[in-house]
Amino acid sequence: MADPRERLEQMVKLLREKGHRLTPQRVAMLKVIAESAGHPSAEQIYERIRPDFPTTSQATVYKTLHVLKELGEVLELSLTQVGSRYDGNRPYPHPHVICTGCGQILDPEFAAMMDITQEMARQTGYRITHHQLNFFGLCPKCQKEGRKARIKEGN
Amino acid sequence: MADPRERLEQMVKLLREKGHRLTPQRVAMLKVIAESAGHPSAEQIYERIRPDFPTTSQATVYKTLHVLKELGEVLELSLTQVGSRYDGNRPYPHPHVICTGCGQILDPEFAAMMDITQEMARQTGYRITHHQLNFFGLCPKCQKEGRKARIKEGN
DNA sequence: TTGGCTGCAAATATTTTGCACTGGC
DNA sequence: GCCAGTGCAAAATATTTGCAGCCAA
Question: Same domain, yes or no, for A46 and A83?
Answer without folding.
Answer: yes
